[in-house]
Amino acid sequence: MATISKAVVAVLILFEQYCVNFAEWNTRDYMKKEHSLVKPYVGTPWDFVGSTMLTNNYIRLTSDHQSMKGGLWNQHPVLVRDWELHIQFKVHGKGTNLFGDGFAIWYTKERLTMGDVFGSKNFFHGLAIFMDTYSNHNGPHNHLHPYISAMVDNGTMGYDHDADGTHTELAGCEALFRNLAYDTYVAVRYSDDTLTVSTDINNKGGWKECFTVKGVHLPTGYYLGFSAATGQLADNHDIISAKFYELETERKDDGVDYSKIEPSAQFFASPRDHVDDAKGAFMLNSLSGWKLLVVIILIIIGIGVCLMVGFIIFQKSQENSRKRFY
Ligand SMILES: *[C@@H]1O[C@H](CO)[C@@H](O)[C@H](O)[C@H]1NC(C)=O
Ligand SMILES: [Ca+2]
């Protein structure tokens, strides 16, 4: 009996590993080098501006000193409509209570711009994800910092630094990502006009959803970037890697020229329950066509194996009970 259940467990583990490996293989297949940033950054398709400093192991947007601004910008416009960006970062410094200000992840028309929004230009065109470590808000806040939020601008709204962008944010979540001893990641997924931001900051090797916002309209042809700033308060803001994946979706050609649309978003924050899921599962959504079919077939085979093993166990136990009766 014990050996059979051990065998079942072994088969299930093998099967699960196969599924995870499969999903990982899929992500690597679609990783786009021209939008990715990987060590040791030799011949990297990214440009630096301001205080940004390159080392072999990380790119430091600002060091733990006052009044710095640094940026890191991809050289190639993103021409695909559905994508996911996985960023490994590290925010750390000597301050225990006082540190700031944080960094931003950009998908904008502008690139290599310097300014007052986490080191880059205000009244931008496109998407910003703010990884805000310092609360500028005087008065009670309804959330803790560090805080992650998203904003879409068409050049008219502007980010209000003194209010931590509270009035322009699409959605946000608390994320205590600073001064951690292990690796920290954030994922930005933009697909089917839906923006999802997830984090992996608990050393669990799995993504946790921060927020999902529907009805986010962004044109193709914008640039990915990172920027950070320090003021009175400081921190090291390091980008370690960025991996860009093109997602496959099945969509009919609607005749719209997506390079011409204006960035816009419905103001619609959906506070969702935060659920941990496996790293593979987050990518599994992007499987399509025959790959999805293969995964489904594998799952069916897995279930079949379980049923067979279950049946064998059942028969054995029937035999055993019969032996006991005679
Ligand atoms: C820009 O956004 C504002 C606010 O959402 C809107 O009123 C305006 O019409 C937009 N401009 C363009 C050119 O889309
Ligand atoms: Ca702030």
Automatic annotation (TrEMBL):
Gene Ontology cellular-component terms listed: COPII-coated ER to Golgi transport vesicle; endoplasmic reticulum membrane; endoplasmic reticulum-Golgi intermediate compartment; Golgi membrane
Membrane topology per record: Single-pass type I membrane protein; Single-pass membrane protein
Residues spanning the membrane: 292-314
Domain L-type lectin-like: 23-247
Any GO molecular function: metal ion binding
UniProt KW keywords: Disulfide bond, Glycoprotein, Golgi apparatus, Lectin, Membrane, Metal-binding, Signal, Transmembrane, Transmembrane helix
Localisation: Endomembrane system; Golgi apparatus membrane
Any Pfam family hit: Lectin_leg-like
Phosphoprotein recorded as keyword: no
Signal peptide location: 1-23
Xref: PROSITE patterns: L_LECTIN_LIKE (PS51328)
Keyword Transit peptide tagged: no
BP terms from Gene Ontology: endoplasmic reticulum to Golgi vesicle-mediated transport
Official protein name in the record: Vesicular integral-membrane protein VIP36 isoform X1
